[in-house]
Write a structure and sequence with these properties.
Blueprint: H1 4-9, H2 15-36, E1 40-47, H3 55-78, E2 81-86, H4 94-107, E3 113-121, H5 123-139, H6 150-154, E4 167-170, E5 189-192, H7 202-213, H8 223-228
Parallel strand pairs: 1-3, 2-3, 4-5
Helix pairs in contact: 2-3, 3-4
This protein binds 3-methylbut-3-enyl trihydrogen diphosphate and magnesium ion.
The site of magnesium ion (MG) has 2 residues, from loops.
């Protein structure tokens, strides 16, 4: 979700005004995902690197996160949406940690859509965290070196249990991953748009999905194999 700051600056407003406008775009993205039957939507809200931003901006982002959790959780629950926060939760103050735990517990058994909010998240952190968990199992004698493979590693990554990442959308015009879902994006399709996040509406989301639907995903196979043989293409 990139481009909030520039969206505000174009309107001669403070960057934080853009973050507030970005919350409306989050609402429409969640609505679109829920209505169209997307199983899982992950939003990159706050990276592990975002702490280095000016203190005032960080504090507005934390406040917004907390406010939105409070105001939206009931609605998410009513709509059968499961909320999960992925990232290093221990970096947040204890009140926010409690709100996160309560929201996750309330929505834990919902199944129409899983909404992951990546907060204090980094793809490298996710990989290191999974490695630590595997090493803990090994230290306890519950895992051998030969058992380390994509399946056992995948069981320790933050998005375990969710479908493969199909489509990664980045708004705001930059063509990079910025430490988002590094492990998960191995076979993802990328979609980049100049649109700044607060302007990213349901039609634009639909356009991205339409573009994705036109692509041939080969997962290492040849185009001919995909077209002519009865091979089920899969990431793993
Ligand atoms: C993304 O918008 C939102 C967050 C990181 C929370 P930016 O704040 O990065 O907006 P730009 O890139 O400066 O326009
Ligand atoms: Mg940015």
């Amino acid at each position: 979700m990139d481009g909030n700051g520039r969206w505000a600056q174009q309107r001669n407003k403070r960057r934080t005004f853009g973050h507030k406008a970005g919350v409306d775009a989050v609402r429409s993205a969640v609505r679109y995902a829920r209505e169209t039957g997307i199983e899982s939507l992950t939003l990159f809200a706050f990276s592990s690197e975002n702490w280095k931003r000016p203190a005032e901006e960080v504090s507005v982002l934390m406040e917004l996160f907390s406010l939105v959790l409070k105001s939206e959780v009931k609605k998410l629950n009513k709509n059968d949406i499961r909320l999960k926060i992925i990232g290093d939760i221990s970096g947040f103050d204890s009140k926010l940690q409690k709100k996160i735990a309560d929201a996750e517990a309330l929505t834990a058994s919902n199944s129409a859509l899983t909404l992951n909010v990546a907060a204090n998240y980094g793809g490298r952190w996710d990989i290191i965290n999974a490695t630590k968990r595997l090493m803990t199992l090994a230290n306890k004698g519950e895992l051998n070196i030969d058992d380390v493979d994509e399946t056992s590693f995948g069981q320790q990554i933050s998005t375990y249990g969710l479908p493969e990442l199909d489509l990664l959308i980045r708004t705001g015009g930059d063509h990079r991953v910025s430490n988002f879902l590094l492990w998960q994006c191995a076979y993802a399709e990328f979609y980049f748009t100049e649109t700044l996040w607060p302007d990213f509406n349901e039609d634009m989301f639909a356009q991205a999905v339409e573009d994705f639907a036109q692509r041939q995903r080969r997962f290492g196979l040849t185009g001919e194999q995909i077209m002519t043989q009865d091979i089920e293409p899969k990431a793993c």
